[in-house]
Please model this.
Amino acid sequence: MDNPDGTIEFLNKVKRTLRDHHLRVGFSGIRELGPEAIAAFLATLRHPTIENRDTVGDYPADSKLREVLEGSGFFDHVQRASAGGPSLGAGKMYRIEQSKMVIARVAMELSSFAMSQMSNGSNKHGPSYSLLMETMANTFDHASPNSLGRQEWWTSVYYDHALSKACFTFVDHGVGILRSRTFLQRVKHFPMFKHDGEKLQRLLLGEIPSRTKEKHRGRGLPSAYEAWKNGRVKNLVIIANNGYANAKKQEFRELSVAFDGTIVYWEI
Model:
């Protein structure tokens, strides 16, 4: 999330390549790798438009980065290139189906896993559970009827033992909130909002209401921002299409490279 333009450019290149070719990815020389990038990378490898393509790669040479990759849950979904032990158990990653029952179960499992790592307790982390429910349900509101049958959503949690924090990531590889039909119908009433960074900011602030004007509607991302303001979650970062929002830095800007979808990341 510290280099969103470079990360998205890489993910877009991966998707373009896999549409026509197999892919080899070199991780040995990378100097930074976070669980949010791993979740977005896996979501790209498993994009619904990519079929019958093989991807191979190596491990990061840096032992700490290899530990993040091993513990993220990545290898629960891809086959190892060489024999190795199980994932280190610091994270979980799920592909989400088009079922609100599945959403509730996954939200419970991820938020409870985070608390088990942080305090050895089994209760869910309430704010993260609510945020996962809001964020995942939000994709139903913004997905087009024609895309729901093919839509895939990925979500993960990773506990960083060194920094004593749990990192949540949600990836929607659909059209993206800011390009969805429902949002475009809402934002057309606000021609003063020029670029995606500003539109995303105004959406987070609750200044772009739902089409029905009902107070309980359109609360997905505004609820996430309120949770950050109230200190219930930390380091909230959202990418949607060309928009980038970093709540901690109060940075809302236009990205140089578009992401076809939405990424929501936060920590506790």
